[in-house]
Amino acid sequence: MAPVSDARWFTFRFGTFSGPLLRLLGMGRAHSGIAVGPADVAIEMGWSFSGRAPLASITSARALDDTVISRGVHGWRSDWLVNGAGDGLVEVLFDPMMRARVVGVPVRVRRLRLSVDDPAAVVASLRPGGDD
After folding, report:
1. Taking the model in full, what pTM does it have?
2. What is the torsional sign of CA 77, 109, 26, 21?
3. 38-47 own/partner pairs: CB under 8 Å, 24+ apart
4. Is 1 a member of any domain?
């Protein structure tokens, strides 16, 4: 994936036990993150998930109070969860759908939930006008 120019970088949240495991699997902090540029967003979790979309395609971004049990990359149809922890979740909705790859397989994403270290900052950067 080509880098997002002039991007603001956000990190995924990783749990105490899931962090080391995902790092061993090549999906840890060194290979994962969210880059929000002036025109687009790129999301990557190691070799397991990569996606990119114009900011104009984001119809909603909000922090969630939910917690989830699973870790990693999971989804069905256009609803995907990319997380290293069960909390700190942000939900992003896309229209048109974001193009992504899951383990190299092309997918389209309408709803994406991410576990991030700073949900408020990620949400603010994805809203129209951004958080410059």
Report:
1. 0.87
2. negative
3. 38/5, 38/6, 38/130, 40/4, 41/4, 41/126, 42/1, 42/3, 42/4, 42/7, 43/82, 43/100, 43/112, 43/114, 44/1, 45/12, 45/72, 45/73, 45/82, 45/84, 46/22, 47/103, 47/104
4. no
Domain that holds residue 51: 8-126
What is the count of structural domains for the chain?
Answer: 1
Sheet strands (E) in the chain? 8-10, 32-36, 40-45, 49-54, 58-63, 72-76, 79-83, 89-102, 105-115
What is the per-residue pLDDT across 73-95, written as a single tens digit (0 to 9) for each? 999 999 999 998 889 999 999 99
